């Protein structure tokens, strides 16, 4: 019943959610509070929120003691929801209208220390890469994100599981990731077809790793054909190795089997492999 009257009010305002922009708005204040609580925002924190939508999470962030809030939103028709809210906090907020994937995050000033977002699921992976690449070296230490549950599980995948991925391995080398809370479709409007999860990523080392081209390339090549062995994937890229013999020799030197697959390596194996490749 509450949901029905909510929808009617929305219809009246003429701001129906846009599926193409992944607009599944949070409607449960307990969930937004939970996201802000996980982030433990203090007075010295500068927060970046991506995709504020109608401002449900934004309002909760503004109730925290954060010193500054940057907001990036692509859909200008949401201005009637966001502008009055930000006007009340104009000395500590800044709103950029645009596609977050094309905004130069390095130029945000002051630099964000924490990122909070309920982001469209179709841009999640490139967006997390972008945050790791451009914001981690600038001082971002924590991300609290609402993600599709299966992607969240992929990010947390352990060595030897089929969900292991370049992004998950990079996060593991830079810090830690955990699923803080699983979230049902009913907390969104409209309800998505999939389960979601609040994911917390803490960054505490190797802040410039995601911006290293050889690291990104190594992982990309190693996972390019998942059913092949790591050696086969690496050996077919000739600027890594002269030939298969050299790839075989390196894996042996690192104590890795020539039949190992990329998904089986742990984060330390990746680091050692990376360091050797840099010396070739
Ligand atoms: N944060 C709000 C909430 O929780 O209710 C809205 C979340 S909704 C899942 C995703 C939001 O991201 C929408 O407001 C959408 O317009 C915005 N968005 C989609 N693609 C974007 C992009 N490339 N750059 C910036 N914002 C984007």
Strand content: 15-25%
Backbone structural class: alpha/beta
Query: Residue-averaged pLDDT, rounded?
Result: 92
The number of helices is 11
Helix content: 25-40%
Shape: elongated
Biggest sheet features = 7 strands, mixed
Bound molecules: S-adenosylmethionine
Straight-line distance between termini: 66 Å
Radius of gyration computed on alpha carbons: 21 Å
Brief rundown of the structure:
The chain is of the alpha/beta class. Helices cover 38% and strands 18% of the residues.
Structure characterization notes:
The chain is α/β, with parallel strands linked by helices. Helix content is 38%, strand content 18%. It has a seven-stranded mixed β-sheet, with helices on both faces. Strands 1-8 form a two-stranded antiparallel sheet. Strand 2, helix 3 and strand 3 form a beta-alpha-beta unit. Helix 2 (29-39) packs across helix 3 (56-62) and helix 7 (166-174) crosses helix 11. It is elongated. 35% of the residues are buried. Bound molecules: S-adenosylmethionine.
List keywords for this structure.
disordered N terminus, two-stranded antiparallel sheet, alpha/beta, binds S-adenosylmethionine, elongated, seven-stranded mixed sheet, 280 residues
Task: Write the SSE topology.
Elements: H1 2-13, E1 25-26, H2 29-39, E2 46-50, H3 56-62, E3 68-73, H4 79-87, E4 93-97, E5 114-118, H5 124-135, E6 142-148, H6 149-155, H7 166-174, E7 175-183, E8 188-189, E9 196-203, H8 213-222, H9 230-235, H10 244-253, H11 267-279
Parallel strand pairs: 2-3, 2-5, 3-4, 5-6
Antiparallel strand pairs: 1-8, 6-9, 7-9
Helix pairs in contact: 2-3, 7-11
The chain binds S-adenosylmethionine.
């Amino acid at each position: 019943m509450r949901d029905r009257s909510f929808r009617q009010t929305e219809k009246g305002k003429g701001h129906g959610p846009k599926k193409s922009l992944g607009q599944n708005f949070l409607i449960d204040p307990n969930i937004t509070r939970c996201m802000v609580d996980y982030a433990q925002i203090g007075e010295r924190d500068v927060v970046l929120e991506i995709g504020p939508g109608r401002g449900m999470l934004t309002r909760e962030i503004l109730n925290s003691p954060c010193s500054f809030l940057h907001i990036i939103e692509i859909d200008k028709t949401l201005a009637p929801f966001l502008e009055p809210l930000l006007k009340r906090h104009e000395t500590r907020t800044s709103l950029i209208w645009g596609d977050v994937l094309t905004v130069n995050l390095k130029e945000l000033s002051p630099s964000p220390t924490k990122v909070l977002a309920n982001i469209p699921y179709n841009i999640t992976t490139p967006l997390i890469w972008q945050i790791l690449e451009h914001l981690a070296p600038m001082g971002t230490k924590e991300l609290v994100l609402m993600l599709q549950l299966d992607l969240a599980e992929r990010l947390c995948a352990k060595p030897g599981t089929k969900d292991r991925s370049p992004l998950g391995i990079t996060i593991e080398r830079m810090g830690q990731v955990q699923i803080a809370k699983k979230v049902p479709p009913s907390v969104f409007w409209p309800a998505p077809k999939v389960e979601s999860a609040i994911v917390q990523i803490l960054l505490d080392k190797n802040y410039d790793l995601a911006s290293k081209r050889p690291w990104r390339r190594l992982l990309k090549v190693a996972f390019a054909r998942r059913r092949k062995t790591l050696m086969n994937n690496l050996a077919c890229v000739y600027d890594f190795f002269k030939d298969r013999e050299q790839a075989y020799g390196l894996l042996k030197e690192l104590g890795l089997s020539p039949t190992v697959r990329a998904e089986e390596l742990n984060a330390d194996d990746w680091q050692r492999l990376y360091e050797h490749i840099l010396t070739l």
